[in-house]
Automatic annotation (TrEMBL):
Name this protein carries in UniProt: Derlin
Topology in membrane: Multi-pass membrane protein
Transmembrane segments: 15-35, 47-65, 77-103
Superkingdom of origin: Eukaryota
Source species taxonomy: Eukaryota, Viridiplantae, Streptophyta, Embryophyta, Tracheophyta
Amino acid sequence: MLLYVWSREFPTAQVNIYGLVSLKAFYLPWAMLALDVIFGSPIMPDLLGIMAGHLYYFLTVLYLLSSEKHILKTPNWVYPFTSVILLLKFSIHCIASFIIIFFRIEN
């Protein structure tokens, strides 16, 4: 999915595959799918990633350009949780740093 979305955002970027083939980023998801077919890997994860990436890109970029409606906008009730999570992460980092300094734990 990430590869597909990146390839849509930067379609003219030049990408090398194993230093052998140079192509535009627009074709990279399909080239990776072809490589998986050649190497005998299952193609279903790649196809699902391409479909999910296309759906995400369509809903966040293409649909927004044509209708100016945000379908995948983050709900407002989520934003207060982000500050709590950041505070918790910072607290854990401070406690871990204190433990490392106090007990002189070596990595």
